[in-house]
From TrEMBL:
It comes from Schizosaccharomyces octosporus (strain yFS286) (Fission yeast). WD repeats lie at residues 99-139, 140-182, 183-224, 267-300. This is Heterotrimeric G protein beta subunit Git5. PANTHER family: GUANINE NUCLEOTIDE-BINDING PROTEIN BETA G PROTEIN BETA (PTHR19850). GO terms for molecular function: signaling receptor complex adaptor activity. GO terms for biological process: adenylate cyclase-activating glucose-activated G protein-coupled receptor signaling pathway; negative regulation of induction of conjugation with cellular fusion; negative regulation of transcription by RNA polymerase II.
């Protein structure tokens, strides 16, 4: 009899915020801090003591996404007002840097390095920004619907993947403005993408409740992970080794063996939609943000 793979995550800590729904969470690169967003504010948490360390107000933004810079000296936040703000973490009252150039909401953002940021938008494009100059360097166009998610590996940001409401995912070279690969293997809007650690494949999470893994070399789907909840997939991420794919669907997180496409366990505890999941840099702790106004940490 073949034994099932195991993943030792269990609910350990609840971080409660009075600020409302949490659309996005992120870890600092050293794993010491957690960032969570709300409608018009950002909270920084101490990952060891679970205390709130700082509150940043971002009025009129209606935050949809946020990210720490590699040094955690700045925070990027984007939302429904079509702009992305860069906020210094040591000066909460300082005027933020505004990155203006998208014609639609900002759905996702990720730092390439301390001075460069990549964003995706409802205007069907992604943009690479020079933060200090407050200018766009390259605009990546090709999607025919809202671009909802992007991802790249910190060690090699030259290759990134995007997914959108045109039911396609695209692989891009950061150094050019054209898509290297377009895959049309999803049957509904793509809400989230995650690049496999080896960069040979990536996963998509879609509105119809399915997640799929695509091989970049063969340009085809190699695995499918049908959610047991039949709810839209809001966020996905691979484990550090790539052995597991974690899928946020409904108010739970499903953990799948990525190679056998079998469900290993389900993480339950949230009382509303899980909107964002992310692993700390060591890959040992999962943070999940939810519309129930909590961040939950799942430990081995």
């Amino acid at each position: 009899m073949t034994s099932q793979p195991t993943v030792g995550l269990q609910h350990s800590r609840v971080l409660k915020t009075p600020l409302g729904k949490i659309p996005k969470v992120d870890w600092s690169s050293d794993g010491r801090y957690i960032l969570s967003s709300a409608e018009d504010s950002l909270l920084v948490w101490d990952a060891n003591t679970y205390n709130k360390l700082a509150l940043f107000q971002v009025p009129s933004l209606w935050v949809m996404t946020c990210a720490f810079s590699p040094s955690a000296e700045t925070i990027a936040a984007g939302g429904l007002n079509n702009s992305c703000k860069i906020i210094p973490t040591d000066k909460p009252d300082a005027d933020p840097i505004d990155l203006v150039g998208h014609d639609g909401f900002i759905s996702s953002c990720k730092y390439v390095d301390e001075n460069h940021l990549l964003t995706s938008s409802g205007d069907r494009s992604c943009i690479l920004w020079d933060i200090q100059k407050q200018t766009s360097i390259t605009k990546y166009e090709g999607h025919t619907g809202d671009v909802m998610s992007l991802d790249f590996l910190t060690g090699n940001p030259n290759i990134f993947v995007s997914g959108g409401c045109d039911k396609t995912s695209r692989v891009w070279d950061l150094r050019t403005n054209s898509s290297e690969l377009t895959i049309s293997g999803n049957d509904s809007d793509i809400n989230s993408v995650s690049l496999f650690p080896s960069e040979t494949s990536f996963a998509t999470g879609a509105e119809d409740g399915t997640s799929k893994c695509f091989d970049i070399r063969t340009r085809s789907a190699i695995f499918e992970y049908p959610s047991q909840k039949s709810k839209p997939v809001s966020s996905i991420c691979f484990s550090k080794s790539g052995k597991f794919l974690i899928v946020a669907t409904g108010n739970v997180c499903e953990v799948w063996d990525s190679a056998s496409a079998t469900l290993v366990t389900t993480l339950s505890g949230h009382d509303n939609r899980v909107s964002s999941i992310t692993l700390n840099p060591r890959g040992t702790t999962l943070a999940s943000g939810s519309w129930d106004s909590t961040v939950r940490l799942w430990y081995p």
